Amino acid sequence: MQLTIDLTDRDVLVAGSDTMARQAVRRYRNAGAVVHRISVPSAAACDGLLARRPFLVAVVDDGDAGWLPLVEGCKEAGIPVAFEPPAGEEGHVTLVGGGPGALDLLTVGALDALRDADVVFYDRLAPYQELADLTSAELVDVGKQPGHHKVTQRDIEKLMVEAALLGKNVVRLKGGDPYVFGRGGEEVAACVAADVPVRVVSGVTSAISVPAAAGIPVTHREVSRMFTVVSGHAPLTDKEHLHLAGLGGTIVVLMGIGTLPQLAAGLRRAGMNADMPMAVVERGYRPGQRTTIADLGTIETAATGCSNPAVLVIGEVVRVAEANRNHAQASAELSRLAASLLEA
Ligand code: SAH
């Protein structure tokens, strides 16, 4: 259960060891509460604090059974108690896949890691706008705009490692999944080399979810039984075009706007039909999401105004989305017609 209560200027007593309660303390302070602390259970101190009737008592699960009398005391006095998870072991890094940018595509694991963080290094493709509501951690934008790197990859790795070595819990929040064109492997290696404990929380990759946002399934029975995810960061070679065209499945391209003309021409040279459907899905799950559908022969002109971030989809599955859309439109029209006939 999750409750939202306005805590502005309310007295909140946070009970729990300093290390394990540090994030709960920050969360309540950020919510505007006046935080009072007790870090070691003591009957006399607890009685004294309860006598002042705090609005809420937050008990952090620091493993000390000595907090039980405090919980009992609250019950007797009718003071609500919130049980808080402890801060995780200090000084580790968690690489978190943030999904394509929609809050509801963040995993439970991602939310837990964010709650446990002291500092978050985030990218522009991660759902960063809502971060302040999800974590009390310090937020550091290391986002890279296409073309110019704001903070270099090596510097990001250094920042992460240094923060963890200082005892902070670090979240590296990335768009989509950390291991899909996310340089997650390098960041894990940097932590391992520095003896910093590191783990990875997988995320929902844009390679699947952004086509889905446009109604395109990357596989579909009897239409496509495979999908290949390709980086369009640099143009593909003719050998790669040949292999891709030869597979006969769906092709999903990330970072592909800049090389779209070369890709379309290369696949045509490799024997793919010019009428193979192709979609460009821009800004999936964000304001201004837009889908442009054309075919391999016409996409270059159709997608002239398209910009990053975008996912390209090449394959017959694009028709499935069109068929579903047409079906939905036809049903809506049929309902309107039926309603007007009934009225008449
Ligand atoms: N690790 C990420 C991909 C990083 S590469 C993942 O798994 O999704 C960055 C590329 O991802 C962008 O250039 C774009 O092609 C794609 N992308 C990520 N989020 C997107 C979104 N919301 N809409 C469209 N494309 C997106």
Write up what this structure looks like:
With 344 residues, this protein is of the alpha/beta class. The chain folds into three domains: 74 residues, Response regulator (Rossmann fold), CATH 3.40.50.2300; 113 residues, Tetrapyrrole methylase, N-terminal domain (Cobalt-precorrin-4 Transmethylase, domain 1, 3-Layer(aba) Sandwich), CATH 3.40.1010.10; 117 residues, Tetrapyrrole methylase, C-terminal domain (Methyltransferase, Cobalt-precorrin-4 Transmethylase, Domain 2, 2-Layer Sandwich), CATH 3.30.950. It has a five-stranded parallel sheet, with helices on both faces. It has a five-stranded mixed sheet with strand order 10-11-14-12-13, with helices on one face. A four-stranded parallel sheet has the order 2-1-3-4, with helices on both faces. Helix 9 links the parallel strand 10 and strand 11. The longest helix has 27 residues. The two termini are 49 Å apart. The mean pLDDT is 93. S-adenosyl-L-homocysteine (SAH) binds next to helix 8 and strand 14. S-adenosyl-L-homocysteine binds next to helix 8 and strand 14.
